[in-house]
Design brief:
The chain has 450 residues and is α+β, with helices and mostly antiparallel strands. It is built from eleven helices and six strands.
């Protein structure tokens, strides 16, 4: 019987060693490097703000929109005219006929008063809308970096927890082997403990694959090559969010880049309506011409004023005004829809933060310490035969679940705050609010909940 136990133990040890060796040999260089170094969230955010292609593209769009403003305010290009007038078709009559002459001229169109200013206003509002979208892109990239960062941290943390639990299952396995060798236990209990340990090894391998995927995502968001080495994330202090739901909604409506962009679109649409009304009035073109004649014939000049005649206003100006009014209605409704979606997103995120705070407290102060006590008692009770292996293993699995749930809530809380800052555009404001509120701001410190 003892030899059978030893044989089972040796086979299990050999399988475990082979799995660990295979994992080390097949791990990519980036992952091995990640285990050697660390990376902070602030450094990644600073690098992302410098190098993110999305931010750079949004900034270029805003710059391009700004360059359109002076173009819209400018006068149309003047027109120059050069020509010659001949009398008859049979021969060149320059200097022989008073009707033959060379000519040159210049003309300039002047839009009706107020049109240029309105065109400039429309372009300026478009530029301000693009600038707000550029700010939204910055907040969005920062949020994406945070989401990937905290997911990567959770993957590493899960690996640590699984390794800790492997040690506990190994203790149960050793106890089961001793009980079986002494004739007080069954071989099934040894196999059961080994199975749980190997299942944890499977989960560790899945987390390694997840780490590689998240490293690629984080590198891409920051603006690096996806295969660039990336260290292990260092968990920063808990992010503050010391505002009520109503305060958060009001701050979002006031500072959200998406709302600001829609507001500028509404203002631009209003300017387009005014411009469409101005199109009922004619533009004027002033032209000056000089006529050169040879011989004793004196030169001549002329001054002309040309007016556009909006006689087709039924199919042009009226339709343009109707189009501008429809666009204004669309812009206002889009603004309202954005505000409603923003309020809904803020409420969802705020409720997630509150729920996470309560669950974190519950796991940290209640469930995890109790589960730790149960695990410690289960070892002594199992060795003495008061409980069976299944009960001891179940208590270890409960502790594993609570640990994972605790850190999952830590990460979900941080991700919810990151998403809120992205749609609200208020991270700096909330930070300053926390500094001025002093003791009123809730402070949360992460740590091992045990």
């Amino acid at each position: 019987m003892i030899s059978s136990v030893k044989r089972t133990w040796n086979v299990a040890t050999l399988v475990l060693s082979c799995l660990l060796l295979l994992t080390c040999l097949t791990a990519p260089p980036g992952l091995l490097f990640a285990q050697e170094g660390t990376v902070s969230l602030d450094d990644l955010i600073a690098e992302g703000l410098r190098n993110s292609p999305e931010i750079q593209a949004a900034k270029s769009r805003a710059d391009a929109a700004g360059y359109r403003v002076p173009q819209a305010k400018s006068l149309p290009d003047p027109m120059a005219t050069l020509g010659y007038q001949n009398d008859g078709l049979s021969s060149l009559t320059l200097g022989q006929s008073i009707m033959s002459m060379g000519m040159s001229g210049v003309s300039q169109q002047f839009p009706f008063w107020g049109k240029r200013a309105l065109k400039g206003e429309v372009a300026a509002k478009d530029a301000e809308s693009e600038a707000a979208l550029s700010a939204a892109a910055r907040h969005r990239v920062v949020a994406q970096i945070k989401l990937a960062f905290y997911d990567l941290f959770l993957a590493y943390k899960t690996m640590d927890i699984l390794k800790d639990r492997t040690v506990l299952f190994s203790k149960i396995e050793d106890a089961a082997a001793s009980r079986y060798a002494s004739g007080t236990g069954m071989q099934q209990e040894v196999v059961m403990a080994q199975t749980e340990k190997y299942m944890i090894l499977e989960k560790e391998e899945m987390q390694r694959q997840r780490i590689q995927a998240l490293q690629g995502i984080l590198n891409a968001v920051v603006g690096r090559e996806v295969s660039a080495p990336l260290g292990r994330p260092i968990l920063p202090p808990a992010s503050p969010f010391p505002v009520t739901l109503d305060e958060a909604v009001n701050m979002a409506k006031e500072h959200s880049p998406d709302v600001k962009s829609k507001q500028k679109m509404v203002e631009g649409a209003e300017a387009k309506v005014k411009l469409a009304r101005k199109e009922y009035y004619p533009d004027v073109t002033v032209g000056g011409n000089y006529f050169y004649r040879t011989g004793n014939l004196g030169d001549m000049w002329s001054l002309t004023f040309s007016f556009s005649l909006p006689i087709f206003y039924k199919t042009k100006q009226e339709q343009a005004l109707a189009e501008a009014n429809a666009s204004l209605t669309q812009a206002r409704r889009e603004l309202k829809a954005t505000e409603l979606m923003l309020a809904s997103g803020v409420k969802e995120g705020h409720s997630m933060i509150l729920a996470a705070d309560r669950l974190i407290e519950l796991y940290k102060e209640g469930l995890i310490p109790k589960a730790n006590q149960d695990v410690q008692l289960s070892f002594s009770n199992y060795v003495t035969g008061r409980i069976d292996a299944l009960t001891a293993i179940t208590r270890i699995k409960n502790l594993l679940d609570y640990d994972l749930l605790y850190w999952n809530q830590v990460v979900e809380r941080e991700k919810a705050i990151a998403r809120l800052h992205a749609i609200m555009g208020t991270e700096e404001i909330v930070q300053s609010s926390r500094q001025t509120s002093g003791d009123d701001a809730k402070s949360v410190a992460w740590g091992e909940a045990r």
